[in-house]
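Worked Example 4.2. Consider the chain below.
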Amino acid sequence: MRKTIYFLLLIVFFSCNEKKKDNEIKPDNKEFNDQGIQEIGHLYNPETLTTRPIKLYINSDEKNYEIDIFNSDLLKEEKENLKFHSDKIALLLRKHLSKNKVDYNDIIVRIYLKKEGKQSFQYSKQELIEIGNKNL
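Applying the procedure from the previous section yields the following structure tokens:
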């Protein structure tokens, strides 16, 4: 009888672990704010703009956020300044993620131009803070 009680207590103990509360505002929530993504779209007017989280590990909540911008005329005209524009895009995406209480590790900006191909830029939270402070 005693073994059964210990066994049941162990089951209760391990099954009652507190789940991490998810404060992230999902796109289907009425409180979701997509103004940051719209701002990027208005500034760069790409043919296609996609954003998505990428999990770092299979059973982990840690994730990077990626944004892909395809065939923007402005970026094509200023292809020698892609790093500057990528910085700006990453800051706008960071602002968007912060407003929606989304936690992330890095932001990855990918710019696709028809003839020039793809350029990728990756930013950590610390790098984005430093870039934001420089632009003030």
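DSSP finds five helices and four strands in the chain. Residues 82-99 form the longest helix (18 residues). Compare this with Example 4.1 before moving on.
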